[in-house]
């Protein structure tokens, strides 16, 4: 057995991640259990432990079960992530190993169990040799493979080889990237396969055919993969994150037949395509891309006189329109460019002149609104723009296609199929032919859009069919009736109460800051996803506090976090010391009363007025980062000075029950108020625009 220093090692934070608990729980285990593994490295303040010994101890204590092989692989990749580096970095050697196993079956013995030091020294040379043979010298240089593997990397290679033997190499690569897609790289670097397939199909149908495809912000290569699967003869990509570019290159290589000759017909370069274009002379047959969104520092100052801005100089706030023009500059005349963009690009005032010029010259052919939640960022509306580089001498078209796939009853694959159906109908019709499906899509005369706003949001130009409007509002009214019915019994069963002892014990209780120092509460880093048992303070929801009881996305707390316009603050109590709902009740009382400008007296919540209790919720969506940061800092300070009495867990439960009842009551009340307001507006709008008529 190799020396301890060469084994895979984990920190206390990583142990907590393995077991699904807070760091305070790991500290308690070390103090209370004499058989907890001893440190094998690190420092006194930040010790490191043998991963094998820790996993063995956790299983013996029943704190984790034997994980599936796929989850063990994912866990090792998580352990390799460097907070200061690219999140995609651990995927590069992992995918390079799969490429080696695919192209050289004899190499499958290299990561087999044996001497870790030998594997750590020999495997990198084999990986590098295969990378040069398959990807060429430049491609291999992009990967930046290590000259010596670390202990955790060796363990990962062994598990990956086992998983590839069990599931197949192509499936393993796809599963690996898919499972880590949203966390490996910038937001939006991973486009879900169904949506990526639609973008590639639109580009093919719009004239790209089976030619050369370019993605100038290729992320992990999802769009280029879909183009390859539709017969593209050459692929070119560029990505600012070098490790993410390496992931894209390896995915393309793994998706290609193992007997394909070298050099392969694809290239991926590292670098920002706006500032340092890797192919300024390239004129692809089609461009596919999901560029970065909302970038202020995209190079507006240094690129002011760039020849790519044929349709107007993009404003500092219009990075997406810079990418649109870059795509048109890199596609051949008559070739399509299909981009996934935020919905705001269709309506922002700062971009109206460029939008108008794109329409006048016939470069913009279609805008399709997608259902919310179909891709990251999941709370934002996304649009597909279909563009074509004008052919010199050809008259510009007189209509543009607007599609609203997000406003109808269809969602998911049905909505995506509707976009392709609309494009097929539009592209096959003459300019003078009416192309329309009420409430779904319409070929709009370009002259009708060239006003002071040039707002291309599809819903603005597609009035609902009366039957659809009536059905949607009837369903909303039924949902509101259900919420009101749920509130009726709750109104009569609000938690009972009696006069307190007023012995001063609550006012003398320790603060959360003191509990954090004592290890009873952990304050996770901002942005970390909540775990079951976390107390969630929603900064954009009027001081509302929830307890995360299930995985995010299933519980009310998870939904609230996804919907919040400002960040959520997490508190992670040690369950052996504090009941989460007990803690949540005291936190919410403190935060909301302090925002109301009073103390903790009951009268402050009423005399201060309803508006003052929801100051953070009053911040409009898209408020400046300064305001958001101020709200976050203020709430963090409020939370830390919350006093929480020292009570046994059994007594805490007597408080936790009414605290939870009140949270459910308030949640339903707020949902009913919001739905009622939207229902009122919907009926008003329908009666005004004619899609609804009063009952006789």
TrEMBL record:
UniProt source species: Streptacidiphilus jeojiensis
One Gene Ontology term of the molecular function aspect: methyltransferase activity
Domain DNA methylase adenine-specific: from-to ranges: 192-405
GO biological process: methylation
Region of interest (Disordered), ranges: 598-624
Protein name from the UniProt record: N-6 DNA methylase
Lineage: Bacteria, Bacillati, Actinomycetota, Actinomycetes, Kitasatosporales
Domain of life: Bacteria
InterPro entries according to UniProt: DNA_methylase_A-5, SAM-dependent_MTases_sf, Type-I_RE_MTase_Subunit
UniProt keyword Ribosomal protein present: no
SUPFAM superfamilies for the chain: S-adenosyl-L-methionine-dependent methyltransferases
Compositional bias (Low complexity): 601-624
UniProt entry keywords in alphabetical sequence: Methyltransferase, Transferase
